[in-house]
Design goal:
Jelly Rolls, 2 domains, 30 strands, disordered C terminus
């Protein structure tokens, strides 16, 4: 009989919430707050839902004193904002506010609890999601984090609060987010208000353990590895990473660039990146990996311009535990890939592919089981692409070929990334993913 986790309740440490809201859309009088805040939102948000989930006391009294806390969604993107509303300043343009923007398409169509956590003393805002909702066996996954410069100490203002709608005034999230919520919210719970309120800076509690049906307690790790996003550019020596929506602390980014063989190999000049390879034959290519810190990188630079620059990001994987295949050189309309060793179940494999001397060539066939994340064409010669596969089991992964729309020299690499969560064993010695 299989043992499966039955309960993981991150709210149990904090007692009863200050308020529980079950009627939407609705409003209630506001109370200004400068303390830590924990908000739990139970909802099955669809990929087309738009609008305000919760809004606390937005104001626009002046640029120096305006405050607001707000969370909303638009077509699979979640935005949150706290502290300053900067006289209704545009989203992510006010240094006195903390912002989070996250892609939640991996969770849309699934009942989840979204947790919003504000550490008032550290001026930070974090958003987590627990797939299956409060009390499910899924671990809380960090969607994104942000911080303000600390000049606004008030977390939210005292104007009317809105649940599933704007209460009175609202800190700016963008017009598409500032509408009455078009989906269904099951329940909102929040803990806040009062100097004696619990410190939420440790949420989610790292020592919390899911209980399995046979009674074994299994230490909780990170959530399952997930795809965050990808971005690319051409004919440049710097790639902006701001095109990866929701890139957050702890996310792991893989960078891949390629160029014609007439040029020297490029090396990464940005700090704290680990180079995976540099190679050169008909195509020269470079790859590197980095785990994002508290201040997320906004770009990566190399020693000289390449025709194709790409990057892809994942959550809940390790930047230290990876394997890279040998380079596969070929000729024709396919990039092939040598096998890569996957040492742990629930891993991710990324494929980096390049095509020489064919301007505008596009990907026409993706390796079996893989998803095309990004492709880029240089202005005159090279083409490049990144694909990925989630939930790869341990063993030898031998990807099929990627097909291009034209023929020339090609390259291919495979990279295996392990989950950053532990694989615990129960009393009988069986491994149970967490």
């Amino acid at each position: 009989m299989a043992n499966s986790p039955t309960s993981l309740d991150y709210e149990s440490l904090y007692g009863s919430p200050d308020s529980t809201i079950t009627s939407f859309p609705s409003t209630e009088p506001g109370v200004q707050g400068a303390d830590d805040v924990l908000i739990a939102i139970d909802a099955n948000i669809s990929s087309t839902d738009d609008g305000i989930l919760i809004e606390f006391g937005g104001s626009n009294a002046s640029a120096d004193t305006s405050t607001g806390l707000v969370v909303g969604v638009n077509n699979g993107t979640l935005r949150a904002r706290a502290f300053s509303s900067g006289f209704d300043s545009a989203f992510n343009s006010d240094s006195a506010a903390a912002f989070v923007e996250a892609d939640i398409l991996s969770y849309t169509g699934t009942f989840c609890t979204y947790y919003v956590v504000i550490d008032a003393s550290a001026f930070t805002l974090k958003v987590y999601v627990q797939s299956g909702g409060k009390g499910s066996s899924s671990s809380a996954t960090l969607l994104g984090s942000g911080s303000s410069d600390g000049t606004q100490s008030i977390v939210y203002g005292g104007n009317t609060r809105g649940y599933g709608q704007i209460g009175d005034l609202v800190a700016d999230l963008g017009a598409a987010y500032e509408v009455t919520f078009t989906g269904t919210i099951d329940e909102i719970r929040y803990w806040s208000e009062g100097a004696s309120q619990t410190d939420f800076s440790g949420f989610p509690a790292s020592g919390l353990a899911p209980v399995f049906s046979a009674g074994f307690a299994i230490p909780s790790g990170a959530g399952a590895p997930s795809y965050v996003g990808a971005t690319s550019t051409n004919d440049a020596s710097t790639l902006s990473l701001t095109g990866i929506t929701g890139l957050a602390e702890g996310d792991v980014v893989i960078f891949f660039c390629c160029d014609d063989n007439g040029a020297d190999q490029a090396t990464v000049t940005s700090s704290e990146w680990t180079q995976l390879w540099t190679s050169g034959s008909d195509i020269v290519s470079t790859a590197a990996i980095k785990e994002m810190g508290a201040t997320v990188d906004t770009s990566i630079s190399i020693t000289r311009a390449n025709e194709v620059l790409t990057a892809i990001a994942f959550r809940n994987v390790s930047a230290a535990d990876y394997a890279v295949s040998t380079e596969s050189l070929s000729s024709g309309n396919q990039s092939t890939f040598n096998s890569v060793t996957v040492s742990q179940d629930n891993s991710v494999v990324v494929l980096a592919a390049g095509l020489d001397d064919d301007q505008g060539s596009t990907v026409t066939g993706v390796p079996t089981g893989y998803t095309l994340a990004v492709e880029e064409q240089g202005a005159s010669k090279e083409s490049g692409a990144l694909c990925y596969k989630l939930s790869v089991t341990s063993g030898t992964e031998s990807p099929s070929a990627l097909t291009w729309s034209s023929t020339d020299a090609t390259i291919g690499y495979a990279i295996a990334l392990q989950s950053s969560g532990p694989a615990a064993k129960n009393a009988a010695g069986f491994q149970i993913p967490v």
